[in-house]
Structure prediction request, 483 residues.
Amino acid sequence: MRQSSLRTRLAIRLGLVVFVSYVIFSLSLYAYFERILGEDLDAFLASRAVGVMASIRAYARDFPGRSGGRPGPTAFRDLAKLWTDERAGSGFLLSTGVEIVNYAGGILAATHGFESVLPVSKEALKLAREGKSLFRDVETAEDIGGSTDFRVLSVPLRLDIGFTAVVQVIVSQSRVRSALSTLRLLLMLLAPGFAAIGAGAAALIGGGMVAPLGSMAATLRRITERRLDERVEAPGESRELAELAAAFNMMMDRVEAAFDEQLRFTDDAAHQLRTPLTVLRGELELALKHARSSDEYERVLESNLEEVERMMRLVGRMLDLARLEVGKIEAAAEPVRLDAVLRELADDFEPLAVEQGMSFDLSGLSPARASGDSLRLYQAFMSILENALRYAPPGSAIELTSSESESGSRVSVRDHGRGVSEDELTSIFLRFHRGRNAEGPGHGIGLSLAASVVRLHGGTLVASNRPGGGAVFTASFPPPGKR
Prediction:
């Protein structure tokens, strides 16, 4: 199934929103005008009813048939008929029709065209007896004055001469219906235009919104393993797209850093393995150049075995370091006594220290606790201690200290050697880094591995120089359970 573009979907949805909004507006406008025109028509009817009833009362006062006694029903019928005949012909009623009906529902008199066409309703008669009026819509079967749709106001009439009746004031609704029909037609004709305008505006708005995404996509297509430095420009007018671009750029920073780290790791590994492999190859070529005795072949094989074992240790440490740096190794959360780990380490390295004419000073060890993996912490401290044994002068003591406070625990290894160059106090923890004062065999992995293990436990490892000479390596750990 072919996917539509985001711009098209935005245009369609925004166009629909505009169209629906127009429909709601049109319905509201139509309802408003319908109510206003209806209220105006009812106000006109009420005003005309007041005038009609005042006119009838005036006729009743001057009616020649009135006498000192009470006139009969025939006199009022004559009054009603006389009024309708004279007023209808005088133009007083204009476009208004009038019916005068008794309480029995019989029509006493009506203006021309409305005779027995609009009989009074039962509800109107009931309300008239209570002195109330009633508005209602009436449709006639016959065409009266070019209309069959009327608005009727029924009002009670009481005269001083004792007559009561219902006066129905009638007006055609054709003009109101025509005006509403014209408005409805106009709104319907404008609907497609508004839909087109909405779609066009939506397309423009959608295009403006999608354009930054197109630019971002073009940048993404340029990114390859050789162009990891490409970054997405954050559009300033859209906060959401700016946040997306910033998040993507942060991800690319991490990807580029990881890729560079991988390249450095590969280069460093190749460099570190090239030397022992060259030695192996040279010894094997030399052994094969001439015939040798079995003892000579045995010495060559023993030498090669030593080189292979060194390479295996190097590869093992490199793998551990790589796993630590990418987070594939997690430290256990077991309680660890750091001072006990240092004491065990000192006991294990005591023979080597004595052989080199050195000793360990454990007087500064105090209880210090942390959460983690005691075996990995042992390996980390061992790398630091091996470094101290390599550079400390014979006859000196290597100081191991530990302490604990509310902020966490601290472990230090101090020697009396030449110390670390000031410009290498940070770079000394980089993988495969060997300082200018480096002595003896080594690959520059031990301190890097130690720093990674300490970071794995939520701590930090820093190097410094003591005032009297010598290096100090200090590992700080958070309190137990707060790693």
User: Anything to note?
Assistant: The radius of gyration is 53 Å. Confidence is low (pLDDT under 50) at residues 66-70. The domain at 239-325 is CATH 1.10.287.130 (Helix Hairpins).
